[in-house]
Design goal:
single chain; 231 residues; mainly alpha; 7 helices; 0% strand
Length: 231
């Protein structure tokens, strides 16, 4: 016997059963596999630039090393976000550092290739303008919602990574022609998906503003029709 009346015990049990349990989710630490991969990608940016621009920037061996660094960076980009979501490793550092690392490695590659004369500056300008513009636009509408990554955006990233990787290597003949077409596809996808993101951002912002106005009208109406506190 516990010394507690049966009625009290039953009430306690019933109250405990009806009360929702609060489960506290532990914040993932900074040093998790997803963040480590993001840090690795950030470290690879200056290493990639040094390898690509070594000497006169046209040594096939050094450019192969640069391609390897770029390939590792692209592979880590595929895995860090997936690991963070799958294993609940999302951190504030990852939210900030991951997009920075993505833009840094791609931007460094494009600018270096244009400096070397391998890639027209207008291509670099179009891609960088789109990437930076979409990032700013995400912050512009973030209080109304998040623009999800689309299938077209993923195809764009794959096309950009493939095209830039082919330009980093010293290719001649049919492969040099092929990389031009791959880059052309990447530029088209960059523009098309960029316009799609603009459309989504405008629709999202309009919906958010309309919802805010509706909520404000409801609060104003409730205040006007209320009787106020009893005296």
């Amino acid at each position: 016997m516990t010394g507690i009346p049966a009625s009290a015990a039953g009430a306690s049990a019933a109250g405990g059963a009806g009360r929702p349990k609060t489960v506290r989710r532990q914040q993932a630490g900074l040093w998790n596999i997803a963040n480590i991969l993001t840090m690795l990608r950030l470290v690879l940016v200056p290493a990639f630039v040094l390898l690509l621009m070594h000497g006169d920037g046209y040594d096939p061996a050094w450019r192969s090393f640069a391609w390897a660094a770029f390939a590792v960076a692209m592979i880590t980009d595929l895995f860090d976000g997936h690991l963070a979501r799958a294993y609940d490793l999302v951190t504030d550092f990852g939210k900030i550092a991951d997009p920075i690392a993505d833009k840094a490695i791609m931007g460094a590659a494009l600018i270096c290739l244009s400096i070397l004369g391998d890639l027209p500056w207008w291509v670099t300008g179009v891609i960088l303008f789109r990437e930076l513009g979409i990032t700013v636009m995400r912050f512009w509408v973030i209080r109304h919602g998040v623009i999800p990554a689309s299938r077209g955006g993923k195809m764009k990233t794959l096309a950009q990574g493939t095209a830039v990787g082919m330009y980093v290597l010293v290719l001649t003949g049919p492969l040099a022609t092929l990389r031009w077409w791959v880059m052309a596809v990447a530029v088209v996808l960059t523009v098309v998906t960029g316009l799609d993101y603009v459309k989504q951002a405008v629709v999202l912002r309009r919906a958010g503003l309309a919802k805010s106005r509706e909520a404000l009208r409801e609060r104003s109406g409730g205040t006007a029709s209320g009787r106020g506190p009893a005296r």
